[in-house]
Design a protein that fits this description.
4 helices, 368 residues, disordered N terminus, two-stranded antiparallel sheet, mainly beta
Length: 368
């Protein structure tokens, strides 16, 4: 029979919760004070140009590691053997992005066979993304699924490990992540975030903006029997047979984004954000037990881009990194989505239909 137990001892202590709440209130108060300075900016269309009558098609090639999972325990003193670092061998991803007005979507696929498949195995993955919004705010929806991981720290517990030894592999290990990210830009009168990533806009003068960030997500991480190799399970105490972790969470925070423009067409962008993240987690064990836990963690968002943005043709290099921590106090799991890509595209002029013009005149559309 499947047993379920609720472990209240895992919940943060009251004084820790109070401290988090106080820090969050101070952070939000300071952030809003700074951001309020931007709200009185005058609209200046000379800072950017919008391409609302163009169908924008671009191709991208990802060249950086897509997803990794770091696992560590605090049951025993550091032995140097228990830490795990799982990677999904999905470095080279090709894809296509289509944008029109305030809508855009992209899909990626593996374009190059896995490197060193004998040592690292062959993973599978799905990457889908949809975005909506203009210069005021942007909503990004993404679904990512990775199956098949190898542990880069296999040398810590595999006897006689060398350059030809296969890494520990688990073809059943998988992670699914459904995420909605919201960004609000306070200096939208002069700053166009999409000029640096979506190319629906072209920034012609340097500008920056404070940003409000929010995330809502669902994450499922699992394997057939245990998330840990048999050789290190003894270090993970009561979690030795953990085979599934389900997390639901949201985060709220802030940061800034800056577009540096040279000669009206060459640009560089840096976006940084931090926030607090309440998480509701359920730990499932192979023996049939499960426990629930609530924890407040931190989240980070780092993005950058560099490229050329002309009237029709554009290209850029970009890096987008999402870091999420799942911490129980004795078990820490950190997931990183790291994406470095080269993107090249063209704006095809199209005539806006009468029906779509009516949509553009609605109050809902003008709020975007």
């Amino acid at each position: 029979m499947v047993q379920s137990r609720r472990c209240s001892e895992y919940y943060p202590r009251r004084n820790r919760s109070v401290r988090y709440i106080r820090v969050k209130k101070i952070f939000i108060a300071v952030l809003f004070s700074l951001l309020s300075l931007q709200s009185f900016s005058q609209n200046d269309s000379t800072y950017y140009r919008k391409y609302n009558e163009s169908l924008i098609i671009s191709l991208y090639q990802s060249f950086a590691r897509q997803f990794d999972i770091a696992v560590s325990e605090k049951f025993l003193p550091d032995t140097g053997k228990s830490d795990l670092h799982y990677f999904s061998d999905a470095d080279i991803i090709s894809g296509i992005s289509v944008d029109y007005d305030k809508l855009g979507f992209s899909v990626g696929y593996r374009s190059v066979p896995p490197k060193d498949e004998r040592r690292k195995g062959s993973g599978k993955h799905v990457n889908l993304a949809l975005n909506i919004g203009g210069v005021k705010w942007r909503l990004e929806a993404s679904f990512r699924k990775y199956m098949g991981f190898y542990d880069a720290n296999s040398a810590n517990y595999e006897p006689g490990f060398n350059d030809s030894t296969p890494f520990h592999q688990d073809a059943s290990m998988n992670i699914e992540n459904l995420r909605f990210k919201f960004l609000y830009f306070f200096n939208h009168q002069k700053f166009a975030y999409k000029a640096a990533y979506g190319s629906n806009y072209r920034q012609t003068k340097s500008a920056a903006s404070w940003v409000l960030l929010g995330n809502l997500y669902f994450c499922r991480y699992g394997a057939d029997s245990s998330l840990f190799p048999a050789a290190v399970r003894k270090y993970y105490g009561e979690y030795d047979d953990l085979d599934r972790l389900i997390v639901k969470g949201f985060s709220a925070g802030g940061g800034f984004s800056w577009n540096l423009i040279i000669a009206k067409k060459i640009f560089a962008n840096l976006t940084l954000g931090v926030g607090l993240e309440p998480q509701w987690k359920t730990y499932h064990h192979d023996r049939g037990q499960s426990e629930d836990m609530m924890y407040v963690s931190g989240s980070g968002d780092v993005r950058s881009s560099l490229g050329y943005n002309g009237d029709k043709f554009f290209f850029f290099l970009s890096s987008m990194n999402d870091i999420t921590n799942f911490d129980s106090g004795t078990l820490k799991i950190q997931t990183k989505f790291l994406s470095g890509a080269f993107q090249i595209g063209y704006r095809f002029p199209v005539k806006t239909s009468g029906f779509y013009k009516k949509i553009q005149e609605t109050k809902v559309y003008k709020m975007l």
